[in-house]
């Protein structure tokens, strides 16, 4: 039994002839909270797509839970909240509970009849993100931050070991960002769910993450929080690609 969730070794990815990722290695283990940072265009989203099996890397190997990417079962153990999850809320009017239950159907788009047990799982997931009292409301009536919580609940119904998010707070108003992050931290610490989060918010990186990975076109750094704390603003700015103030 391994506690490794993601193990990437020497991943390089090219789009036509341009290199989006060059020789990236990264291991995420059970219970860790990783912040993935780096300037725009440094390959963060590309790396997530490779982990999710949406892109096959040009070179390198990827293992999930100690084996090659293959099964639906493995995918169910990784919850993904995309930045544009809310695109479908405007197309299909649905209640909060329906959106959460849809997380139990396969990604191949198969339809499923839901039973009482599914319903209970969806309600439990809504309790975790503190949205159970809104279950019968239309998703479109909620604020951006509340919708994002519902999409996290949708990812949680399959009881994942890891939650992957790509800039989840874009479009959420400032005062709700803080409570959003305290909820993520609770998911990590109390429920033991590992997190891989792409973010530009340096506060999160320094306060919540236990591990940091930085993609910076030519430099790839990853380390534990302590290494990051020791770096000066100048070092960080060079590393991140723009001025960073602590
Ligand atoms: P980030 O998420 O860090 O902003 P991306 O992973 O989106 O970066 O992009 C990394 C690089 O790959 C960029 O130069 C981007 O233009 C390029 N890229 C991303 N997706 C594609 C694609 N589908 N086709 C061609 N180039 C792409
Ligand atoms: Mg991106």
Automatic annotation (TrEMBL):
The keyword Lyase does not apply. Transmembrane segments: none annotated. The keyword Transport applies. Keywords: ATP-binding, Nucleotide-binding, Transport. Pfam families: ABC_tran (PF00005). InterPro entries: AAA+_ATPase, ABC_transporter-like_ATP-bd, ABC_transporter-like_CS, Metal_Ion_Import_ABC, P-loop_NTPase. GO terms for molecular function: ATP binding. Coiled coil: none annotated. Residues 6-241 form the ABC transporter domain. Belongs to the ABC transporter superfamily. This is Zinc ABC transporter ATP-binding protein. It comes from Sporosarcina ureae. The lineage of its organism: Bacteria, Bacillati, Bacillota, Bacilli, Bacillales.
């Amino acid at each position: 039994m391994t506690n490794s969730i993601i193990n990437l070794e020497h991943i390089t990815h090219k789009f036509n002839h341009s290199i989006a990722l060059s020789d990236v290695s990264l291991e995420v283990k059970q219970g860790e909270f990783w912040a993935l940072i780096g300037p725009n265009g440094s390959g963060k989203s590309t790396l997530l797509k490779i982990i999710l099996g949406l892109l096959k890397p040009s070179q390198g190997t990827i293992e999930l839970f100690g084996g090659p990417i293959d099964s639906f079962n493995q995918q169910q153990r990784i919850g993904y909240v995309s930045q544009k999850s809310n695109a479908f809320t405007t197309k299909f009017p649905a209640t909060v509970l329906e959106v959460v239950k849809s997380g139990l159907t396969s990604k191949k788009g198969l339809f499923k009849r839901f039973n009482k047990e599914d319903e209970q799982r969806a309600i439990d997931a809504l309790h975790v993100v503190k949205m159970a009292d809104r279950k019968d409301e239309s998703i479109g009536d909620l604020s951006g931050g509340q919708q994002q919580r519902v999409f996290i609940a949708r990812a949680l119904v399959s009881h994942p070991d890891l939650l992957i998010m790509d800039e989840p707070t874009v479009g959420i108003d400032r005062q709700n960002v803080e409570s959003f992050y305290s909820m993520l931290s609770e998911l990590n610490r109390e429920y033991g769910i590992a997190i891989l989060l792409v973010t530009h918010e340096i506060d999160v990186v320094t306060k919540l993450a236990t591990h940091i990975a930085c993609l910076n076109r030519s430099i790839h750094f990853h380390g534990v929080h302590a290494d990051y704390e020791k770096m000066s603003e100048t070092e960080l700015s060079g590393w991140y690609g723009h001025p960073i103030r602590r």
